[in-house]
Automatic annotation (TrEMBL):
Protein name, entry field: Cadherin-8
GO process terms (BP): adherens junction organization; calcium-dependent cell-cell adhesion via plasma membrane cell adhesion molecules; cell migration; cell morphogenesis; cell-cell adhesion mediated by cadherin; cell-cell junction assembly; homophilic cell adhesion via plasma membrane adhesion molecules
Domain Cadherin: 87-167, 168-281, 282-396, 397-501, 501-623
Keyword RNA-binding in record: no
Stored Gene3D superfamilies: Cadherins
The species this protein was found in: Opisthocomus hoazin
This protein's record includes keyword Transmembrane: yes
Length: 714
């Protein structure tokens, strides 16, 4: 320790001594060579100088100094002498007074006003302030008049190695891919030193690794050696073996020599993952069992291929590459657990196949081409699946049934049969029934033993052509095992409906029609549905075959035309003709019906347009149309209504009122004090006077009673 302290002092003081030796001769020799020395009281001599001499003296300053230096962090019992100010005008007679002003004057730096000595009164730190700018001036001590213009000078604080290097951005965290080559860049580190980088080696830094070798190295990043970078020193570092490294970096000043100060930082280096490991199944053989009635898509087991890598590099996909159940089972990947999930793809049947063997493969999804030579990034395993027996419901011989029956089938006749069996080894007997929710009218029955379906009620194709029912098969040993099958029953047609007119036809015959003119075209319909389509035969009644007025003609489109045999039809002679027509179909046996066509004789225009079909039209004025007649009738009705309203209003206006107002009633009230006299009252007083007081001209008093007051009618 003493040796190190001695070396530090030598490194610090050696430059100062050399600087002191170089500066002192220039300080004390300058007056002799560059300035004149004048008596302290000879101001007249200074005035006698020519202007040329003044210029010369100003260019060669009378002050004796250069830059001054003071050592930082110096402390001692006495203030440290920084330097001395002296002018060639000072003869040493104490007539000159030195004044100091500027940065730190009077506090940090104090000048002896007689000798010009400058002392540092405080301990200085270059890192806080590297230099101080001061102003010196020589004045007459008695008059305080300047003898020289003020001049500035600088006191520089000389650096010592008192600051250790610091890593401002530390500690550091860096990543580098595993399996990287030697010299792969990891990160950059930088240390700073507050000491003077210009003077000495106090800020000259050297980097080294204290911990982390031999895995990493450090070297300058630039020629100036301001930044250093960390690189890998060994190849093929495996993250799966060790993921994190703790590196300690040291920066030492003084060029790394003895006595230099140092600072350290830590760099945590994490190896990032690359896909350098294949997936590996935890076991080479897996055993699973599954019940044969498991639902499709249900998982029956899981397999797991582990991968030492992480993240995307550890993702694997599973596939079935071999086996006797490749079409029965499928395997998918669970994104959360990264397991392979085996599911049922098709129904299982214990009675058909009791076990399966599969070969599954797990392969990495993302493969790094740099490591493809390391081998296939996949693995395989064998999966054995045992199918267990389950009590299954009955199985019908067909998933659906289609039955056909003629609509005239007899009651209780067999229209079809369904069959079912128990697929289990025990083979339980089966009983059949009809789901009555699908046969609400109970048109069908089924034999519970053999599944024969019979007809319970008559069928009508024209009412309902299709019947859909459901047959239920139940095991007799276990009633919970039930199966259902849909039955579609088609009702076939038989010729049981006669044809008839498609609509109620009414034909109109013009009085001015011509012989052979088509009066009407009629068509027929049949509710039956023959395979070859409808074909109708039309004929007149036998007794009307020789009808003198009309005849019929069959058209190619299965319709019938009605023709007039002659002209000269008259409404006055016969207004309406009825023509019965027989319509027959081509069924076996054929069905027929008779429909009557109404033919009405009408008056027509010359163009054959029907205008009127009533006999009363003859009595109407010639030249008046039907619209004009309706308008005339409406006017007559309107006039009658107006007359009736007028008469009614007149009658109500002339009818007198029984009592006009309250005053009339009050003035015609007569008081009597006697009791009623029975029939004499009605004879003695006219009751009509009370009912209609305006109907008499005078007052008729009772003859047998004298009233108290009498009011004359107004």
């Amino acid at each position: 320790m003493p040796e190190r302290l001695t070396e530090m002092l030598m490194d610090t003081w050696t430059p100062l001594i050399i600087l002191w030796i170089a500066v002192l001769p220039s300080i004390y020799m300058a007056p002799m060579n560059q300035s004149q020395v004048l008596p302290s009281g000879s101001s007249t001599g200074l005035k006698r100088l020519t202007e040329e001499q003044r210029v010369l003296n100003r260019s060669k300053r009378g002050w004796v100094w250069n830059q001054m230096f003071v050592l930082e962090e110096f402390s001692g019992p006495e203030p440290i002498l920084v330097g001395r100010l002296h002018t060639d005008l000072d003869p040493g007679s104490s007539k000159i007074k030195y004044i100091l002003s500027g940065d730190g004057a009077g506090t940090i730096f104090v000048i002896n006003d007689k000798t010009g000595d400058i002392h540092a009164m405080k301990r200085l730190d270059r890192e806080e302030k590297a230099e101080y700018t001061l102003t010196a001036q020589a004045v007459d001590r008695d008059t305080n008049k300047p003898l020289e213009p003020p001049s500035e000078f600088i006191i520089k604080v000389q650096d010592i190695n008192d600051n250790a290097p610091e890593f401002v951005d530390g500690p550091y965290h860096a990543t580098v891919p595993e399996m990287s080559l030697v010299g792969t860049f990891v990160t950059k580190v930088t240390a700073t030193d507050a000491d003077d980088p210009v003077y000495g080696n106090s800020a000259k830094l050297v980097y080294s690794i204290l911990e982390g070798q031999p895995y990493f190295s450090i070297e300058p990043h630039t020629a100036a050696k301001l930044h250093f970078i960390i690189k890998t020193a060994l190849p093929n570092r495996d993250r799966e073996a060790k993921e994190e490294y703790f590196v300690v970096i040291q920066a030492k000043d003084m060029g790394g020599h003895m006595g230099g100060l140092s600072g350290t930082t830590t760099v945590t280096i994490t190896l990032t993952d690359v896909n350098d490991n294949p997936p590996k199944f935890a076991q080479s053989l897996y055993h699973f069992s599954v019940v044969e009635d498991v639902a499709l898509g249900e998982p029956i087991g899981r397999v797991k291929a582990n991968d030492l890598d992480i993240g995307e590099n550890a993702k694997s996909s599973y596939d079935i590459i071999e086996g006797d159940g490749m079409d029965i089972f499928e395997i998918t990947t669970d994104d959360q657990t990264r397991d392979g999930i085996i599911r049922v793809r098709k129904p299982l049947d214990f009675e058909t196949k009791k076990s399966y063997t599969l070969k599954v493969e797990a392969a990495n999804v993302h493969i790094d081409p740099r490591f493809i030579s390391g081998g296939p990034f996949k693995d395989t395993a064998t999966v054995k699946i045992v199918v267990e027996d389950a009590d299954e419901p009955p199985v019908f011989s067909s998933p659906t049934y289609l039955l056909e029956v003629h609509e005239n089938a007899a009651i209780n006749s067999v229209i079809g049969q369904v069959t079912a069996h128990d697929p289990d080894v025990s083979s339980s007997p089966i009983r059949f029934s009809i789901d009555r929710h699908t046969d609400l009218e109970r048109q069908f029955n089924i034999n519970a033993e053999d599944g024969k379906i019979t007809l319970a009620t008559p069928l009508d194709r024209e009412t309902n052509m299709w019947h859909n029912i459901t047959i239920v098969a139940t095991e007799t040993r276990n009633h919970s095992q039930v199966s259902r099958v849909p039955i579609a029953i088609k009702v076939l047609d038989v010729n049981d409906n006669a044809p008839e007119f498609a609509s109620e036809h009414e034909a109109f015959l013009c009085e001015n029609g011509k012989p052979g003119q088509v009066i009407q075209i009629v068509s027929a319909i049949d509710k039956d549905d023959p395979k070859n389509g409808h074909y109708f035969l039309y004929s007149l009644l036998p007794e009307m075959v020789n009808n003198p007025n009309f005849t019929i003609k069959k058209n190619e489109d299965n319709t019938l035309s009605i023709l007039a045999k002659h002209s000269g039809f008259s409404r006055q002679k016969q207004e309406v003709y009825l023509l019965p027509i027989i319509i027959s179909d081509s069924g076996n046996p054929p069905m027929s019906s008779t429909s009557t066509l109404t033919i009405r004789v009408c008056g027509c225009s010359s163009d054959g347009i029907v205008q009127s079909c009533n006999v009363e039209a003859y009595v109407l004025p010639i030249g008046l149309s039907m619209g004009a007649l309706i308008a005339i009738l409406a006017c007559i009705i309107l006039l009658l209504v107006i007359v009736v309203l007028f008469v009614t209003l007149r009658r109500h206006k002339n009818e007198p009122l029984i009592i006009k107002d309250d005053e009339d009633v009050r003035e015609n009230i007569i008081r009597y004090d006697d009791e009623g006299g029975g029939e004499e009252d009605t004879e003695a007083f006219d009751i009509a006077t009370l009912q209609n007081p305006d109907g008499i001209n005078g007052f008729l008093p009772r003859k047998d009673i004298k009233p108290d007051l009498q009011f004359m009618p107004r």
